[in-house]
Amino acid sequence: MCQTALHPFLEVLPKCEHHMHIEGSLEPELLFELAAKNGIALPLAGGGPGLRALRKRYEAFTGLDDFLGYYYVAMSALVDASDFERLAEAYFRRAARQNVRHAEVSFDPQAHSARGVALSTVIEGLTAARERAKRELGISSVLIMCVLRHLPPAEGVALFEEARDAGYFGGSVSDGKNDDKEKEPVLGGIGLDSSEKPFPPELWTELYGAAKKAGVRRTAHAGEEGPAQYIVDSLDMMDAQRIDHGLRSVLAGDEGVTDALLARLVDQKVMLTLCPLSNVRLRCLESVQDFPLRQLLDRGVRFSINSDDPAYFGGYILENYCALQEAFGLSVREWEGIAKGAVMGSWCADRRKWEILSEIEAVAGEWSVELGEQ
Ligand code: HPA
Ligand code: ZN
């Protein structure tokens, strides 16, 4: 919990999360429990660390690839649909306590199929948890199928075709009742994650072209460790509609690219899904103070604040909001603007956006009076 006067407001502020990897919410406790249930030996940090040792190791990542080594090993504990359901249920319950109202949740099917776990198994578990979150917690959600950029692009295309042909993106499979158009698709979009360098955007034109042709929404990680040019190329070559991280669009050092890129992001209302605690843990930034929050606000870039891999990076969405508040001391009205920007960049129906926007207005109105800001 942060020590700022705004903490109680930040807790209740209605939130949208767009950048979280569900496998990255696998807390060590559940990891060990599922590994024991499924008889999986975990070769982590010297063959059998305790919870505390593992958490300590998570504080010492040297970069993205160091983290990913742990991330891929830990997810080997996820085997059947009920494991994925429990994982996602735990996330949604924590998100609800932080007043997340809409969550866009990424997952990595290739990291599971490599271990013999079918796409349908993963989707079955995640879908059950999403439906319960909607019913019991009032959280709407979207599932984003990510392709791993360290694997051959043709395998990503094959995964996309498998999902498309199974009807997961909607449209192509009829259940005989002729009501497909009314249904929300199981999958709401595609993404691209894993090691950024040296896997540039031009490798993914076929995949993203196929997704665009099928009317599927498209986001992609870019500019986390890779250069700002990867962000430009993700927009130009892949027709990505939003950018996960995109941090390097705002950091000094890529002169000649960043200024025009920022103008373009603003002009085209491309949302950056930023993750400050992740950036610090993966050493993309030295500290939260270096997060370019003021530049983003001053330029009018659309962005949201997210947890990325909350079990690994020291917190969920609220802890990310709090870290920024401690570093930058924003006003209630500034947070209201950030929360509303996140709603506007969400992949949900307009009606849902209006609902959340009005919740934000009510909470911000109440707290700006409470904190004497008006
Ligand atoms: N970056 C890239 N790939 C990922 C991440 C990340 O932060 N988390 C999980 N997969
Ligand atoms: Zn990510």
Task: List key phrases describing it.
4-stranded parallel sheet, binds hypoxanthine, alpha/beta, globular, TIM Barrel, binds zinc ion
Give a verbal description of the structure.
InterPro entries: A/AMP_deam_AS, A_deaminase_dom, ADE, Ado/ade_deaminase, Metal_Hydrolase. The active site is at residue 224. With 374 residues, this protein is an alpha/beta fold. The protein has one domain: Metal-dependent hydrolases (TIM Barrel). 49% of the residues lie in helices and 12% in strands. It contains 17 helices and eight strands. It has helices spanning 7-12, 28-38, 51-58, 64-74, 81-97, 109-113, 119-137, 153-165, 205-213, 228-238, 258-267, 276-281, 293-299, 310-313, 317-328, 332-344, 350-370; strands at 15-21, 100-107, 140-148, 189-193, 219-222, 242-245, 271-274, 303-305. The strands form two sheets. It has a four-stranded parallel sheet, sandwiched between helices. It has a four-stranded parallel sheet with strand order 5-6-7-8. β5, α10 and β6 (242-245) form a beta-alpha-beta unit. α8 (153-165) packs parallel to α9 and α16 (332-344) packs antiparallel against α17 (350-370). The longest helix has 21 residues, at 350-370. The protein is globular and about 60 Å long. Residues 172-176 have low confidence and may be disordered. The protein binds hypoxanthine and zinc ion. The site of hypoxanthine has 11 residues, from α4.
